[in-house]
Amino acid sequence: MQVKALRLCIHLPLIEVERLLLVTLKNLTKLTRLNLNKNEVSNIEPLKKLTKLTHLVLRRNKITNIEPLKNLKKLTGLYLWHNEITDYSPVEPYYDNLRYKDFELH
Fold first, then answer.
1. Which of 14, 17, 53, 65 could form a disulfide with 39 if both were Cys (CB 3.0 to 4.6 A apart)?
2. 24 lies in some domain
3. Membrane-spanning residues where (predicted)?
4. Do residues 47 and 25 lie in contact, with contact meaning Cβ atoms separated by under 8 Å?
5. How far apart are CA 47 and CA 68, in angstroms?
6. What CATH number has the domain bearing residue 74?
7. Burial of residue 96, with CB atoms counted within 10 A of its CB: 0-12 exposed, 13-18 middle, 19 or more buried
8. Cα 48 vs. chain centroid, distance in angstroms?
9. Distance (Å, rounded) from C-alpha 79 to C-alpha 26?
């Protein structure tokens, strides 16, 4: 699928994502759901512009910093299990609005 066609997507099912593809994802601003489960992702900075996301799956990666998620206030589902995250405060402002989550604020 070409990048131009991907920009029109609003939903991507589980995909195998190479680290370089994350740079492309930042341009997919219409996405509402994204599943990056088990992709060895460590840098989620490119996701910070995906403000229309309602569901985000980042399980089983190598994420330590979730600061880029702080403005994704439309999220109702956020899955962060099995990462190396120690500070969940960036999502605290909308934590109570998350209907689906697999973590607790520390």
1. 17
2. yes
3. none
4. yes
5. 7
6. 3.80.10.10
7. exposed
8. 8
9. 19
Higher pLDDT, 2 or 29: 29
Does residue 64 form part of some domain? yes
Report helix, strand or coil for 77: strand
Residue 89 lies in a domain: yes
What is residue 101's predicted lDDT score, i.e. its pLDDT?
A: 98
Which pLDDT tens digit goes with each residue over 40-92?
A: 889 899 899 999 999 999 999 999 999 999 999 999 999 999 999 999 999 99
Range of the structural domain that residue 82 is part of? 3-101
Mean pLDDT for all residues in the chain: 86
In sequence order, which residues have a C-beta less than 8 Å from that of residue 39 and are 6 or more positions away?
16, 17, 61
Residue 106 falls within a domain, yes or no?
no
pTM of the model as a whole: 0.84
Place of tokens 């989550």: 101
Number of domains in the chain: 1
**Residue 41, phi-psi category: left (phi > 0), alpha (psi -120 to 50), beta (remainder):** beta
